[in-house]
Amino acid sequence: LPYAEREVALQNGRIEIGWICGLLYVLLNQKQPHTLDLLAAPVLDYNRYANSPVYFSDLIVRTDSPFQSFIALRGARLAYNEATSFSGYRILLAHLADQGETAAFFPQPLQTGAHSHSITAVLQGHADVAAIDSTAYDELPHTLKSQLRILMTLGPNPVPPFVISSKVAPTLRQKITDTLLNLPACPHGQTLLRQSHLRRFAPVTDADYDQIRHVNQQALTLLAG
Q1: Which of 71, 73, 152, 197, CA to CA, is 20 to 30 A from 171?
Q2: Which domains does the chain carry?
Q3: Which residues pair with 165 in a beta bridge?
């Protein structure tokens, strides 16, 4: 579902459980406090995640791209998935703010609607660079990765969490959390984790997503300026 539809579905209860962007979790609970509760956060089974519930934003270009540094991207064509995506857009805006730049650094950004579409835009030459969720990049087949180069990585940041509607009974919410946390303890759970390229699930609290709140505020300040 597109971001806007996901937001509405989670707010009205049509969707009661999901794996969502950490920023969407923050924004929904900001609009309607206690709308969603955290269940657990996945720990990706790749070395760069260091057995922690984190992820990154990878700035990708084509392998034959002339760009060799972030500052060289001034005026380049940026592809991003959604305006409210943390890894695809907001963290990049916050990085621009940290560098003393403005949103005009990328004069004509292209909104694609999905990380996969941003990758395609770069591969097909419709964009020079894209900010991609590192989990999406890690899952790319070698045939596509061989055509791309990570110019820069931003993060680590709190990984998108599994959430549940606060309207769901507390006993059921706790049972689901316990099931996720205990997956490594049983053979079937180990199989599910391995098939999903996950090492385990980790407990998380609302405070763990304060970093996303801070980065998002930087991005909003840049856009307002």
Answers
A1: 197
A2: 3-46+162-214 (3.40.190.10), 54-157 (3.40.190.10)
A3: 36
Q: What are the residues whose beta carbons fall under 8 Å from the beta carbon of 203, sequence distance 6 or more? A: 40, 41, 177, 181
Q: What pLDDT digit, counting tens, does each position of 154-213 carry?
A: 999 999 999 999 999 999 999 999 999 999 999 999 999 999 999 999 999 999 999 999
- pLDDT value at residue 14: 86
| Beta sheet of 148-158, edge-to-edge order | 110-111, 78-80, 129-133, 54-62, 148-158
Cα 110 from Cα 115, distance rounded (Å): 12
Strands 36-44 and 198-202, by their bridges, are antiparallel
C-alpha distances out from residue 48 to 44, 145, 156, 177, Å? 9, 17, 10, 25
Q: Write down the pLDDT at residue 32.
A: 87
Residue 213: which of 99, 94, 115 has the closest Cα?
94
**Phi/psi of residue 185, each to 5°?**
-85, -10
What residue type is assigned to position 51 of the chain?
N
Q: What would the DSSP string read from start to end of 20-82?
A: --HHHHHHHHHHSTTSEEEEEEEEESSGGGTTSSEEEEEEEEETT-S--SSGGGTT--EEES-
**pTM, rounded to two decimals:** 0.92
The residue-averaged pLDDT of 124-134 equals 98
